[in-house]
């Protein structure tokens, strides 16, 4: 069985619950630590699937590993190797397959609800009825436009494109479903000033520091359950 490659771009953008979920589904994982200078692998066929985590950078930033990851995603697509993306990872996936990435009309930070789309495909991936509201952790300023042929499976009032599926194989998620209580704490330690600044400016897509720190264990547990459902469907395509 080939391992699932999990790409970590920053300290805060750690895999969180992803590794334990994939291992519970019978998969072996290898973390590619871009954050520590590890090179991007050249051959997608070394892996049974690939997961790209988040990061503070944007897909258009002049970092040498970004075009390398985009090329690797395209290679995986050509080989029918499933790719999943979280936040920045979802934007990399969208851009690699012909979509676009731009600034959202406002930042989303903290706990925000998304809603699952209508249709059999969305219900298949989420394992929940159409129109189900899910509380998720957000921290992003950019948004993706899904590539041609993609199906959007979740939306929200502040950022319309929240999750998409391509060819029943690849999965992009704007939300940070992978968050653990420890990662929420680390995010606020490193970037809490940005949250407080946006909240003070009246951004309705940002929760207060107090609200962001409320019921974190229960909220992250709910996200883990949702992510388990998504990955249970995603691993069906893994080599």
Automatic annotation (TrEMBL):
GO cellular component: cytosol
Transferase among keywords: yes
Glutamine amidotransferase domain boundaries: 21-182
Keyword Ubl conjugation: no
Family matches, as InterPro entries: ChyE-like (IPR044992), Class_I_gatase-like (IPR029062), GATASE (IPR017926)
SUPFAM superfamilies: Class I glutamine amidotransferase-like (SSF52317)
Highest taxon, organism lineage: Bacteria
GO molecular function: transferase activity
Key words of the record: Glutamine amidotransferase, Transferase
Pfam families, sorted: GATase
PANTHER family attached to this UniProt entry: GLUTAMINE AMIDOTRANSFERASE YLR126C-RELATED
UniProt-recorded name of the protein: Type 1 glutamine amidotransferase
Species annotation: Noviherbaspirillum cavernae
């Amino acid at each position: 069985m080939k391992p699932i490659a999990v790409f970590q771009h920053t300290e805060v953008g750690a895999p969180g619950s992803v590794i334990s979920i994939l291992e519970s589904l019978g998969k072996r994982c290898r973390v590619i630590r871009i954050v520590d200078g590890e090179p991007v692998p050249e051959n997608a066929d070394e892996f049974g699937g690939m997961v790209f985590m988040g990061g503070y950078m944007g897909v258009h930033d002049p970092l040498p590993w970004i075009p390398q990851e985009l090329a690797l995603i395209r290679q995986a697509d050509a080989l029918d190797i499933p790719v999943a993306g979280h936040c920045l990872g979802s934007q990399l996936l969208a851009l690699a397959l012909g979509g676009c990435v731009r600034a959202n009309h406002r930042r989303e930070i903290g706990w925000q609800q998304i809603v699952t789309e209508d249709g059999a495909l969305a219900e298949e991936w989420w394992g929940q009825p159409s129109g189900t509201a899910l509380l998720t952790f957000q921290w992003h300023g950019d948004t993706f436009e899904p590539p041609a042929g993609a199906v959007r499976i979740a939306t929200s009032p502040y950022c319309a494109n929240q999750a998409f599926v391509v060819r029943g194989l690849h999965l992009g998620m704007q939300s940070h479903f992978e968050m653990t209580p420890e990662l929420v704490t680390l995010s606020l330690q490193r970037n809490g000033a940005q949250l407080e600044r946006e909240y003070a400016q009246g951004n309705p897509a940002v929760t207060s520091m107090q609200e962001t720190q409320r019921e974190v264990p229960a909220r992250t547990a709910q996200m883990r359950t949702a992510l388990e459902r998504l990955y249970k469907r995603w691993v069906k395509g893994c080599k």
